[in-house]
Each structure stands twice: as C-alpha cells, then as structure tokens.
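Following up on my earlier message about zinc ion. Here are the inputs again, as you asked, copied directly from the submission form:
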Amino acid sequence: MIRTNDPIQDFLNYDYEQYLKEISRPVCCECGDYITDEYLWDFHGMYYCEKCMRDHRERIDD
Ligand SMILES: [Zn+2]
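Thanks, got it. Here's what our run produced:
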C-alpha cells in the first residue's frame, strides 16, 4: 500500500485498496454478495457462495 505522511490520506488509500480487493471478487448469483470465502461453487458460470449452497443442501432419506 502507498504510505504518505498524511494519516487521513493513508486511511483513504487503505479503504480504496480494500474496495478494489472486494470488487475483484466474484459475486454470488443467489444472494448477490461478494464471495470472500476460500471456495465458491461454479455451475456453468453461475457462482454460488458457501452459505447459499448450504441453504440448498437437502438430506436424502432412503
Ligand atoms: Zn450467496
């Protein structure tokens, strides 16, 4: 990160870097959130976050 001798500018730079990091993340097509987990589910180019996949998981009883 770029450091200046201005603490406010430093804070803004940090915020901006976090923002850039976030918008480069894939977006979950179910909840619309940025996927910040280590894994995502990719179904033919549709991304799902772990939480949404867990919501869709169903138990199969024999
Ligand atoms: Zn989701």
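One observation from looking it over: Residues 28, 30-31, 33, 48-49, 51-52 surround zinc ion (CB under 6 Å). Hope that helps, and feel free to reply on this thread.
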